[in-house]
Design brief:
The structure holds two protein chains of two kinds. Chain A is an alpha+beta fold. Chain A is 16% helix and 40% strand. Classes of the chains: A alpha+beta, B mainly alpha. Strand 13 of chain A pairs parallel with strand 1 of chain B, so a sheet runs across the interface.
Chain lengths: 243, 65
Protein backbone atom coordinates (compact mmCIF):
# COMPACT_ATOMS: atom_id res chain seq x y z
CA UNK A 1 0.00 0.00 0.00
CA UNK A 2 2.75 2.32 1.05
CA UNK A 3 4.64 1.32 -2.07
CA UNK A 4 1.73 2.34 -4.25
CA UNK A 5 1.53 5.70 -2.52
CA UNK A 6 5.20 6.32 -3.10
CA UNK A 7 4.90 5.36 -6.73
CA UNK A 8 2.02 7.75 -7.11
CA UNK A 9 4.07 10.50 -5.49
CA UNK A 10 6.90 9.86 -7.92
CA UNK A 11 4.54 10.00 -10.90
CA UNK A 12 3.03 13.26 -9.66
CA UNK A 13 6.49 14.74 -9.26
CA UNK A 14 7.46 13.85 -12.80
CA UNK A 15 4.18 15.24 -14.14
CA UNK A 16 4.75 18.41 -12.14
CA UNK A 17 8.19 18.75 -13.66
CA UNK A 18 6.89 18.36 -17.20
CA UNK A 19 4.07 20.80 -16.62
CA UNK A 20 6.46 23.34 -15.19
CA UNK A 21 8.72 23.14 -18.19
CA UNK A 22 5.85 23.48 -20.62
CA UNK A 23 4.55 26.49 -18.76
CA UNK A 24 7.99 28.01 -18.82
CA UNK A 25 8.19 27.57 -22.58
CA UNK A 26 4.86 29.27 -23.05
CA UNK A 27 6.04 32.19 -20.94
CA UNK A 28 9.10 32.59 -23.10
CA UNK A 29 6.98 33.01 -26.22
CA UNK A 30 4.61 35.43 -24.55
CA UNK A 31 7.47 37.55 -23.29
CA UNK A 32 8.98 38.06 -26.71
CA UNK A 33 9.24 41.74 -27.42
CA UNK A 34 6.52 42.95 -29.69
CA UNK A 35 7.44 43.05 -33.30
CA UNK A 36 8.41 46.36 -34.79
CA UNK A 37 6.09 49.25 -34.15
CA UNK A 38 6.23 50.02 -37.85
CA UNK A 39 2.93 49.64 -39.50
CA UNK A 40 1.17 50.68 -42.59
CA UNK A 41 -1.93 52.69 -42.24
CA UNK A 42 -3.55 54.91 -44.82
CA UNK A 43 -4.98 58.13 -43.57
CA UNK A 44 -8.54 57.57 -42.45
CA UNK A 45 -11.37 59.82 -43.46
CA UNK A 46 -12.09 60.66 -39.83
CA UNK A 47 -8.73 62.22 -38.99
CA UNK A 48 -5.75 63.44 -40.94
CA UNK A 49 -2.14 63.55 -39.85
CA UNK A 50 -0.14 66.72 -40.32
CA UNK A 51 3.65 66.58 -40.34
CA UNK A 52 5.47 69.74 -39.25
CA UNK A 53 9.14 69.96 -40.20
CA UNK A 54 11.47 70.19 -37.19
CA UNK A 55 14.53 71.74 -38.79
CA UNK A 56 15.31 74.28 -41.48
CA UNK A 57 15.13 71.75 -44.30
CA UNK A 58 13.88 68.26 -44.96
CA UNK A 59 14.89 65.63 -47.44
CA UNK A 60 12.10 64.13 -49.50
CA UNK A 61 12.69 60.65 -50.89
CA UNK A 62 11.26 59.10 -54.00
CA UNK A 63 10.94 55.80 -52.19
CA UNK A 64 11.50 54.29 -48.77
CA UNK A 65 14.71 52.74 -50.04
CA UNK A 66 16.31 56.10 -49.55
CA UNK A 67 16.55 57.48 -53.06
CA UNK A 68 16.66 61.22 -52.45
CA UNK A 69 14.25 63.25 -54.52
CA UNK A 70 14.67 66.81 -53.29
CA UNK A 71 15.24 69.03 -50.30
CA UNK A 72 12.50 71.36 -49.13
CA UNK A 73 13.22 74.30 -46.85
CA UNK A 74 11.34 75.48 -43.78
CA UNK A 75 9.88 78.01 -43.25
CA UNK A 76 8.27 78.36 -46.65
CA UNK A 77 8.21 81.43 -48.86
CA UNK A 78 5.59 83.07 -46.65
CA UNK A 79 7.59 82.48 -43.48
CA UNK A 80 5.31 79.69 -42.25
CA UNK A 81 6.78 76.52 -40.80
CA UNK A 82 6.66 73.84 -43.47
CA UNK A 83 3.94 71.24 -43.08
CA UNK A 84 2.85 68.23 -45.11
CA UNK A 85 -0.36 66.27 -45.21
CA UNK A 86 0.37 62.63 -44.38
CA UNK A 87 -1.12 60.21 -46.88
CA UNK A 88 0.38 57.06 -45.40
CA UNK A 89 2.05 56.29 -42.07
CA UNK A 90 4.49 53.39 -42.16
CA UNK A 91 6.22 53.91 -38.84
CA UNK A 92 9.68 55.26 -39.59
CA UNK A 93 8.47 56.63 -42.93
CA UNK A 94 5.62 58.86 -43.97
CA UNK A 95 4.24 59.29 -47.45
CA UNK A 96 3.18 62.92 -47.76
CA UNK A 97 1.45 65.15 -50.25
CA UNK A 98 3.94 67.71 -51.53
CA UNK A 99 3.24 71.41 -52.18
CA UNK A 100 4.87 71.30 -55.61
CA UNK A 101 3.91 70.93 -59.24
CA UNK A 102 2.42 68.81 -60.62
CA UNK A 103 -0.57 68.84 -58.32
CA UNK A 104 -0.92 65.62 -56.35
CA UNK A 105 2.84 64.96 -56.14
CA UNK A 106 3.82 62.70 -53.26
CA UNK A 107 7.07 61.77 -51.58
CA UNK A 108 8.45 59.96 -48.54
CA UNK A 109 9.92 61.66 -45.50
CA UNK A 110 11.44 60.29 -42.30
CA UNK A 111 9.14 60.41 -39.30
CA UNK A 112 12.09 61.50 -37.15
CA UNK A 113 12.33 64.74 -39.15
CA UNK A 114 8.84 65.97 -38.27
CA UNK A 115 6.39 66.44 -35.45
CA UNK A 116 3.03 64.83 -36.05
CA UNK A 117 -0.35 66.30 -35.22
CA UNK A 118 -3.84 65.27 -36.10
CA UNK A 119 -6.92 67.13 -37.24
CA UNK A 120 -10.45 65.88 -37.60
CA UNK A 121 -11.33 68.72 -39.99
CA UNK A 122 -11.38 68.73 -43.75
CA UNK A 123 -12.73 71.12 -46.35
CA UNK A 124 -14.62 70.04 -49.44
CA UNK A 125 -15.19 72.37 -52.36
CA UNK A 126 -17.96 71.48 -54.78
CA UNK A 127 -17.19 73.50 -57.88
CA UNK A 128 -20.45 72.68 -59.62
CA UNK A 129 -22.56 73.76 -56.67
CA UNK A 130 -20.28 76.73 -55.81
CA UNK A 131 -20.31 75.53 -52.22
CA UNK A 132 -17.80 74.63 -49.54
CA UNK A 133 -18.41 72.38 -46.56
CA UNK A 134 -16.17 71.99 -43.55
CA UNK A 135 -16.41 68.60 -41.86
CA UNK A 136 -15.39 67.65 -38.35
CA UNK A 137 -15.05 63.92 -38.83
CA UNK A 138 -18.18 63.02 -40.73
CA UNK A 139 -20.18 65.93 -39.35
CA UNK A 140 -20.58 69.08 -41.44
CA UNK A 141 -19.88 72.08 -39.22
CA UNK A 142 -19.97 74.98 -41.68
CA UNK A 143 -20.98 75.49 -45.27
CA UNK A 144 -21.13 78.48 -47.57
CA UNK A 145 -20.93 79.72 -51.14
CA UNK A 146 -17.71 80.05 -53.13
CA UNK A 147 -16.44 81.69 -56.28
CA UNK A 148 -14.16 79.51 -58.40
CA UNK A 149 -11.89 80.04 -61.37
CA UNK A 150 -13.11 81.39 -64.67
CA UNK A 151 -13.23 79.07 -67.68
CA UNK A 152 -9.75 80.13 -68.84
CA UNK A 153 -8.21 79.89 -65.38
CA UNK A 154 -10.09 77.06 -63.69
CA UNK A 155 -9.80 75.87 -60.13
CA UNK A 156 -8.33 72.39 -60.57
CA UNK A 157 -9.84 69.37 -58.84
CA UNK A 158 -7.71 67.38 -56.45
CA UNK A 159 -6.61 66.82 -52.91
CA UNK A 160 -4.64 69.66 -51.34
CA UNK A 161 -3.86 71.05 -47.89
CA UNK A 162 -3.40 74.42 -46.25
CA UNK A 163 0.25 75.52 -46.43
CA UNK A 164 0.05 78.81 -44.54
CA UNK A 165 -2.37 81.34 -43.13
CA UNK A 166 -1.93 84.89 -44.35
CA UNK A 167 -3.55 88.04 -43.06
CA UNK A 168 -3.32 90.42 -46.01
CA UNK A 169 -1.72 93.71 -45.13
CA UNK A 170 -4.54 95.39 -47.04
CA UNK A 171 -7.67 93.99 -45.42
CA UNK A 172 -9.82 95.85 -47.96
CA UNK A 173 -7.97 94.25 -50.87
CA UNK A 174 -8.88 91.41 -53.22
CA UNK A 175 -7.84 88.68 -50.73
CA UNK A 176 -10.19 89.88 -48.01
CA UNK A 177 -9.67 89.28 -44.32
CA UNK A 178 -7.54 86.12 -44.51
CA UNK A 179 -6.06 83.72 -47.03
CA UNK A 180 -5.13 80.07 -46.58
CA UNK A 181 -2.48 79.11 -49.14
CA UNK A 182 -3.05 75.73 -50.78
CA UNK A 183 -0.55 73.07 -51.78
CA UNK A 184 -1.84 73.17 -55.36
CA UNK A 185 -1.18 75.39 -58.35
CA UNK A 186 -3.08 76.77 -61.29
CA UNK A 187 -2.88 74.42 -64.27
CA UNK A 188 -2.76 77.46 -66.54
CA UNK A 189 -0.90 80.26 -64.78
CA UNK A 190 2.75 79.47 -64.13
CA UNK A 191 3.11 82.78 -62.34
CA UNK A 192 0.71 85.40 -61.05
CA UNK A 193 1.23 88.71 -59.26
CA UNK A 194 4.87 87.81 -58.69
CA UNK A 195 4.02 84.40 -57.23
CA UNK A 196 4.22 80.89 -58.71
CA UNK A 197 0.52 80.58 -59.53
CA UNK A 198 -0.29 79.11 -56.13
CA UNK A 199 -3.93 78.49 -55.28
CA UNK A 200 -5.61 79.67 -52.09
CA UNK A 201 -8.89 79.93 -50.29
CA UNK A 202 -9.40 83.53 -49.28
CA UNK A 203 -11.91 86.25 -48.52
CA UNK A 204 -12.93 88.91 -50.96
CA UNK A 205 -13.76 92.55 -51.45
CA UNK A 206 -16.34 91.58 -54.09
CA UNK A 207 -18.87 89.45 -52.25
CA UNK A 208 -21.32 89.79 -55.14
CA UNK A 209 -19.08 87.52 -57.26
CA UNK A 210 -19.41 84.62 -54.83
CA UNK A 211 -21.44 81.86 -56.43
CA UNK A 212 -19.91 82.47 -59.87
CA UNK A 213 -16.77 81.63 -61.85
CA UNK A 214 -14.83 84.79 -61.18
CA UNK A 215 -11.26 84.07 -60.07
CA UNK A 216 -7.92 83.16 -61.62
CA UNK A 217 -8.06 79.80 -59.89
CA UNK A 218 -8.37 80.64 -56.21
CA UNK A 219 -11.46 79.83 -54.21
CA UNK A 220 -13.10 82.95 -52.84
CA UNK A 221 -15.43 82.84 -49.88
CA UNK A 222 -17.03 85.51 -47.71
CA UNK A 223 -14.89 87.32 -45.17
CA UNK A 224 -17.07 85.89 -42.42
CA UNK A 225 -16.39 82.35 -43.65
CA UNK A 226 -12.64 82.81 -44.08
CA UNK A 227 -12.45 84.42 -40.63
CA UNK A 228 -14.23 81.38 -39.19
CA UNK A 229 -11.78 79.08 -41.01
CA UNK A 230 -8.80 81.11 -39.76
CA UNK A 231 -10.05 80.68 -36.22
CA UNK A 232 -10.99 76.99 -36.42
CA UNK A 233 -8.82 75.23 -38.99
CA UNK A 234 -5.17 74.25 -38.78
CA UNK A 235 -2.43 74.70 -41.32
CA UNK A 236 -2.21 71.28 -42.95
CA UNK A 237 -5.96 70.71 -43.00
CA UNK A 238 -6.92 68.69 -46.10
CA UNK A 239 -8.91 70.38 -48.84
CA UNK A 240 -10.66 68.36 -51.54
CA UNK A 241 -11.80 70.14 -54.69
CA UNK A 242 -14.32 68.18 -56.73
CA UNK A 243 -17.30 68.58 -59.00
CA UNK B 1 10.05 -4.76 -0.21
CA UNK B 2 10.62 -2.12 2.43
CA UNK B 3 13.94 -1.22 0.88
CA UNK B 4 12.40 -0.95 -2.52
CA UNK B 5 9.67 1.34 -1.19
CA UNK B 6 12.26 3.49 0.54
CA UNK B 7 14.25 3.81 -2.66
CA UNK B 8 11.16 4.85 -4.59
CA UNK B 9 10.36 7.41 -1.92
CA UNK B 10 13.86 8.85 -2.02
CA UNK B 11 13.71 8.95 -5.82
CA UNK B 12 10.42 10.82 -5.70
CA UNK B 13 11.78 13.32 -3.20
CA UNK B 14 14.89 13.83 -5.29
CA UNK B 15 12.80 14.30 -8.43
CA UNK B 16 10.63 16.89 -6.69
CA UNK B 17 13.66 18.73 -5.35
CA UNK B 18 15.36 18.63 -8.72
CA UNK B 19 12.21 19.88 -10.40
CA UNK B 20 11.84 22.83 -8.08
CA UNK B 21 15.51 23.64 -8.45
CA UNK B 22 15.23 23.46 -12.22
CA UNK B 23 12.29 25.82 -12.25
CA UNK B 24 13.92 28.40 -10.01
CA UNK B 25 17.21 27.80 -11.75
CA UNK B 26 15.76 28.48 -15.14
CA UNK B 27 14.46 31.79 -13.89
CA UNK B 28 17.84 32.66 -12.45
CA UNK B 29 19.79 31.35 -15.37
CA UNK B 30 17.57 33.12 -17.85
CA UNK B 31 19.85 35.95 -18.89
CA UNK B 32 18.32 39.35 -18.83
CA UNK B 33 17.09 39.86 -22.34
CA UNK B 34 18.31 42.96 -24.05
CA UNK B 35 15.60 45.52 -24.44
CA UNK B 36 13.79 45.58 -27.72
CA UNK B 37 15.74 47.30 -30.44
CA UNK B 38 14.76 50.88 -30.96
CA UNK B 39 11.60 50.96 -32.94
CA UNK B 40 9.29 53.76 -33.85
CA UNK B 41 6.68 54.60 -31.30
CA UNK B 42 3.31 53.37 -32.49
CA UNK B 43 1.50 56.12 -34.32
CA UNK B 44 -1.33 56.33 -31.82
CA UNK B 45 1.13 56.92 -28.98
CA UNK B 46 3.11 59.65 -30.63
CA UNK B 47 2.95 63.05 -29.02
CA UNK B 48 0.86 65.42 -30.99
CA UNK B 49 0.70 69.14 -31.00
CA UNK B 50 -2.44 71.11 -31.16
CA UNK B 51 -3.22 71.83 -34.79
CA UNK B 52 -4.59 75.21 -33.77
CA UNK B 53 -1.12 76.53 -32.99
CA UNK B 54 -0.77 79.02 -35.81
CA UNK B 55 -0.22 82.69 -36.29
CA UNK B 56 -1.20 84.38 -39.54
CA UNK B 57 1.58 85.90 -41.55
CA UNK B 58 0.84 89.56 -42.28
CA UNK B 59 1.91 90.15 -45.86
CA UNK B 60 0.57 90.99 -49.28
CA UNK B 61 0.07 87.52 -50.76
CA UNK B 62 0.59 86.55 -54.39
CA UNK B 63 -2.01 83.84 -54.90
CA UNK B 64 -3.98 83.41 -58.10
CA UNK B 65 -6.80 85.51 -56.67
Amino acid sequence: MRTNLLRTAAAVSVAFLLTGCAGSARSAVRDEPASSGARSEPASSATSKIATVKGSRITVYRSKEGQSQRTITSPNGYGATRVFLVERDEGEWLQVLLPIRPNGSKGWIKTADVVLAETSHRVEIDRGAFRFTVYDGDRPVRTGKVATGEAGTPTPPGRFFFTELVKPADAAGAYGAYAFGLSGFSPVLKSFAGGPGQLAIHGTNKPSAIGTRASHGCVRISNADITWMAKNLAIGTPVVVKG
Amino acid sequence: MKTKATLIGITAALALTAGLAALSGSALADPKRPGPSPSPVPADHRPTVSPSQKQPVVINPAYTG
